[in-house]
Every structure is written in C-alpha cells, then in structure tokens.
C-alpha cells in the first residue's frame, strides 16, 4: 500500500515538536477532532484518533527526551558520482492514511501528485547537495558562457543560481528592516542575515538619486521620510572566509548583491530612459540608461557614489587576497540587475589584476545599447540573465523587440549593418547583454498561467522556477527541493486552485510561517 505523509528528517524533529502543540489547538486545521465531515463514510472515531495521536506523541517524545542524547542526524549513503543521499527519517514509515481515512483516497493518486503534496506539507526547504566544483568552477562562473549547462540545466549550476538569488533576498530583507539612512549608519557595514554563513559582509553600498522631491512631501508624510531620501542602502559586498567552502568552490568568491527598486526616487530614476554616453572618452559611443547611470555615479551628502564604493572595496580585497584564486560574482534583481552590469563594467577595468567577473541577474531590464554590450564582452565580463518569459520588465526600456529576431537580423550582412547604424542614432536602441536562461511561469504546476505582473517579476517566483527547471522541453522538476511556503505566502492570489476528482479540496486558507494547512487530498488544476 502506498504511504503518504510529510517525511521529516531527524534534524527537523525539534521544529516539529515545537509546533505540534499548535497543531492540537482548537483552531488548527491539522486537528482531525475539529473537522466536521459531511459524509458518514469519512467520519472517524474520536477515541481511535486520540489513540493514534497519542502513539505519535510517544514516538516523538522518545526521540526528544531531555535525558536522552539528541537524535542523530539523517545518515547518508554515498552515490557513485560522489554525491550523498539521505536515508529515510524515523517518520518515513508512518501511514498517515490510517489516521485520517480521507487520505486513503490519495493512494489512488499518481506518484507525481503524491510527491507534490508531500512537498507542500514539508516543514522546511531541503537543499541540493553542494558538490565539489573543483577545477571546473570557471565553467560555472561563465568562462565558456555556460555552454552545455543551461538546456538541460546542470544541477550544480541550478544550485549556484539559486544561491546567488538568496544573496539578493538578504539585501531586500536588510533594507526593509531599516530603510532609513543616517549619517552614523552609513559609516559602518549593516548587519545582513546572509543565507550562507561561509561569507561575511565587508562593505555596505549606497545608491543616490540625482533628483529629489519637493520639501512639502516630508511635511505631509513625515513618517515616510525614507521614501524621499536621495541616498539609500542598496546592497553589500561579502567575501567567502570559510576554508572548506573555498576548497569546495575551487576559489575564494567575492559577492556583490544589489536589491531592486524600493524608494520613490529610484522609481523616478527608472523612467529616465534616454540613452546617454557612459563616459566622455568612449570612442564607440557605448550608452546606458540615464536613470541607471545617475544612481550609479551620483555622490550623496554623506556617502560616496556606488561606483566609488564598489571599486575601492574590490581593490582592497584583491590586494588583501593577492596570490589566491579569486572570483567576483555580482548578482541583482530588477533595478539591482541593471546596476550589476554597471558595477561589472566599472570593476572589470579598475585593476590589471581583476579576477574573473560574472553577473547573475534576475528579471533585469535592458541597460544600454549594442556598443555597451560589446564593451562588456571585450572586457571579459560574463553575464547570465535569468529571464521569466512572462516578465515584461525584461523587455524594457526601449522598443518591444524580439531578442530572437534581433539576433537573426544581426547575423545577416544587410540586417547587421542596418541595426548597427541605428544603434548609435536612435535614443531608445537598447540591447540585452550576455547569455539567457529562460524560465516560464506556465511551467510551474503551482502558479497560475495568467499570474499577474508582480508575481512574474517576483524574485521568489524566479527562484521557484529555476529550482523546478529541467529543460525547455521537459515538465517541472518533480523532486524540486525548494520549499513552497514563502511562495504561497507572498503570492497566494497567483497560486492555482487545487482539487481532486472526488471534489475534495486542499484548502489554502491558512498557510502562514508555521505551514498550517488542511490535510485533504488534492490534484493540481490543469489551468
């Protein structure tokens, strides 16, 4: 008989124990004693239920008694390719269908749907194994423009992409926890809750708008003063300091993470979309968007420009770790993705000893013209653009031109000459940079195919899609490791309705951080 339930690794037992009291409260949807069934065939004896829950309680207490040693972590078995595979946890054998008869109907579901349900009910995200990149780290950093790694998506590259996306999430969280910028705070690095403890923050980065709002705005809304401040914390520089992680990655990695648009003045800069020369000494007329360049180059009243800060810090780190294999990875989302390209351009020429520079951008808009793209290529900057096919932000600013059509035209003599001539003449002749990894909202079994613009541009939605991406001609990865609780919590209106052929719904009424969910059978909607 098939078994269904949420398998908890041994190291997650403490989390389960801390939350089980909440599961037994009167309002918990996981408490079968509070569920009223409309069919007699689905009723369950109260005494039988109590007995099963009591047995489960005893089992958990047995492994968490204060006088007993902590439960040993899940043991691993070596695989032939050097990876490790976790053995089943102690709850693997629990037959949840015996506790709740309505779950017996789930035994008729396909293994694919059972897997999805188990993942929905998972307590925490499982991470893919960190394989040793060794001498191949350059390939994952873009030395060959990720040739042969994108379609199908290499497992190691998938993990690296998601990992760098989480560095951006840390930048968002840090900013929103304290959006104001004071003179005192700008003198020291902020505390950032990094997703990888192998790294430490060495520098806070600020972006400054060249425009401002009228003074009366602050008088009308004094509590929202940070919305009108010209200089705002935009990200950080972090460096890997853990020897084991350095050995695994094959080098010491320097990360520059940049958040997306968050203040009114940043939005105002975003719409200043005329192309302007990136420098006065540029012979090929490499041009970038006026607003992006303004945020990058403008100095604040108490902080240097983003360009100055990042160059000074990179030079310092290069000198400090001189003689070691180094890499610089710049990662950003939305506005941060645009600024990441400007940062990459600046640091690629800041020192004759600059290590390999790669950009991992999520939902990035166009930044400059074709000459700017050629400039980055000539400076050996490698760019991997993660693009959601449904994200309109990746097709602005400039004209809505198909990237595929543009590429085909440039491959012809006549079309290439014409487009090259237009690049330097038209004020909105934008072009993307680098290699593209395309994902699609419609491939997710959990997101609605007509999800709104905000969802299609959301960073967590991007990481969800990358985690489930196998190849352009394959369905969503059934064994995707990333937890869904954050995606559902933030994009609830864009999550598909779930149902079964027997009209038993898995309600998504309440999915807060404790992952309280109704335990009914479900199948994903085909639309």
How would you describe this structure to a colleague?
The chain folds into 2 domains: 10-126 and 488-524, no CATH class; 134-482, Rossmann fold. With 527 residues, the chain is an alpha/beta fold. Helices cover 34% and strands 13% of the residues. The protein contains 19 helices and 13 strands. Strands 3-4-5-8-9-10-11 form a 7-stranded mixed sheet, with helices on both faces. A two-stranded antiparallel ribbon has the order 1-2. The longest helix has 23 residues, at 155-177. The model is unreliable at 1-45, 59-109, 117-126 and 499-527 (pLDDT under 50).
The appropriate CATH architecture of the largest domain is 3-Layer(aba) Sandwich
CATH superfamily of the largest domain: Alpha/Beta hydrolase fold, catalytic domain
Strand order in the sheet with the most strands: 3-4-5-8-9-10-11
What top-tier CATH class of the largest domain fits best? Alpha Beta
Major sheet description:
7 strands, mixed
Number of helices: 19
Q: Which parts are unreliable, with pLDDT below 50 for 5 consecutive residues or more?
A: 1-45, 59-109, 117-126, 499-527
Mean pLDDT: 74
Family: Belongs to the AB hydrolase superfamily. Lipase family.
Protein name: Putative lipase
Keywords: Chloroplast, Hydrolase, Lipid degradation, Lipid metabolism, Plastid, Transit peptide
Domain Fungal lipase-type: 255-399
């Amino acid at each position: 008989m098939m078994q269904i339930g949420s398998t908890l690794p041994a190291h997650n037992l403490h989390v389960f124990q801390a939350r089980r009291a909440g599961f037994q409260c009167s309002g918990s949807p996981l408490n079968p004693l509070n569920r009223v069934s409309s069919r007699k065939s689905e009723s369950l004896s109260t005494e039988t239920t109590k007995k099963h829950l009591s047995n489960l309680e005893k089992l958990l207490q047995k492994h968490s008694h204060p006088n007993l040693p902590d439960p040993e972590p899940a043991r691993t078995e070596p695989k032939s390719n050097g990876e490790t595979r976790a053995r089943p946890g102690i709850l693997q054998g629990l037959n949840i269908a015996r506790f709740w008869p309505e779950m017996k109907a789930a035994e008729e579901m396909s293994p694919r749907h059972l897997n999805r349900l188990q993942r929905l009910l998972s307590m925490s995200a499982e991470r893919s194994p960190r394989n040793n990149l060794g001498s191949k780290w350059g390939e994952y950093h873009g030395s060959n423009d990720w040739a042969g790694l994108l379609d199908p998506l290499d497992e190691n590259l998938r993990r690296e992409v998601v990992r760098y996306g989480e560095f951006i999430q840390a930048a968002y969280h840090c900013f929103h926890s304290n959006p104001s910028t004071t003179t005192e705070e700008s003198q020291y690095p902020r505390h950032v809750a990094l997703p990888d403890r192998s790294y430490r923050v060495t520098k806070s980065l600020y972006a400054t708008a060249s425009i401002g709002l009228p003074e009366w705005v602050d008088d009308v809304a004094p509590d929202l003063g940070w919305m009108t401040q010209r200089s705002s914390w935009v990200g950080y520089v972090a460096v890997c300091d853990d020897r084991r992680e350095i050995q695994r990655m094959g080098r010491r990695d320097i990360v520059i993470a940049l958040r997306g648009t968050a203040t009114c003045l940043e939005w105002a800069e975003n719409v200043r979309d005329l192309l302007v020369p990136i420098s006065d000494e540029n012979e090929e007329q490499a041009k970038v968007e006026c607003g992006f360049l303004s945020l990058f180059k403008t100095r604040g009243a108490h902080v240097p420009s983003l360009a100055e800060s990042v160059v000074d810090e990179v030079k310092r780190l290069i000198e400090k770790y001189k003689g070691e294999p180094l890499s610089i990875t710049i990662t950003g989302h939305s506005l941060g993705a645009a600024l990441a390209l400007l940062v990459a351009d600046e640091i690629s020429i800041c020192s004759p000893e600059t290590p390999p520079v790669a950009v991992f951008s999520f939902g990035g808009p166009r930044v400059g013209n074709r000459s700017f793209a050629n400039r980055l290529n000539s400076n050996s900057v490698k760019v991997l653009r993660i693009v959601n096919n449904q994200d309109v932000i990746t097709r602005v600013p400039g004209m809505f031109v198909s990237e595929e059509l543009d590429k085909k035209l440039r491959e012809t003599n006549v079309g290439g000459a014409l487009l090259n001539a237009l690049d330097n003449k038209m004020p909105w002749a934008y072009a993307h940079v680098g290699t593209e990894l395309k994902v699609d909202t419609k491939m997710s079994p959990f997101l609605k195919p007509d999800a709104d613009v905000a969802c299609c541009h959301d960073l967590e939605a991007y990481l969800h899609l990358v985690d489930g991406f196998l190849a352009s001609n394959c369905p969503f990865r059934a064994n995707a490791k990333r937890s869904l609780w954050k995606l559902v919590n933030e994009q609830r209106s864009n999550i598909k309705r779930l149902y079964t052929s027997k009209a038993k719904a898995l309600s998504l009424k309440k999915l807060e951080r404790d992952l309280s969910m109704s335990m009914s059978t479900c199948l994903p909607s085909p639309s």
